[in-house]
């Protein structure tokens, strides 16, 4: 069965080239558009097996493609996402991986190899994960370079461990024999060191605990 895909790439020449490559790799390109918003629309219309998208797209050329990909994943979790990028962008790759299986991140140089492109499409459509070797190397280097938990003091680590156990601030204070104000001060410092600013979208306590568990 032919792989059905849609494509988003702002450069017309590159878009046409990718359409040819995708078709040579055995895919049927249902639509090829130039921005993230249009990608979300054609995905809703065609319901492909895979959406292929560039990271940087109009209007700001920062992360519009990635945000469109994450929106597609939210609305249609069964559709695979294959992100193409000119460079290794670590934070974008991490955001993509956190969206779950059925995702891929390849450098554009890699897609010139038809066998690699065909394999990536097949694996992503089947719910697998495909990462360019350079992306894997960058992510591992980044992880070794920055361990946010290493910045916590022993006291803060103890507080975070108790938070991970589901303890309330009152219970933490009682177990550590410190005041409620001291507990709140430690937690505020933990949020700061873990890079968790105040936000209406994320529960910082949960995010801090997730960081502890991952560490």
Automatic annotation (TrEMBL):
Pfam families: GerE (PF00196), Response_reg (PF00072). Residues 145-215 form the HTH luxR-type domain. CDD domains: LuxR_C_like, REC_NarL-like. Gene3D superfamilies: 3.40.50.2300. The modification 4-aspartylphosphate is found at residue 54. The keyword Repeat does not apply. Keywords: DNA-binding, Phosphoprotein, Transcription, Transcription regulation. Residues 4-123 form the Response regulatory domain. This is Response regulator transcription factor. It comes from Pseudonocardia kongjuensis.
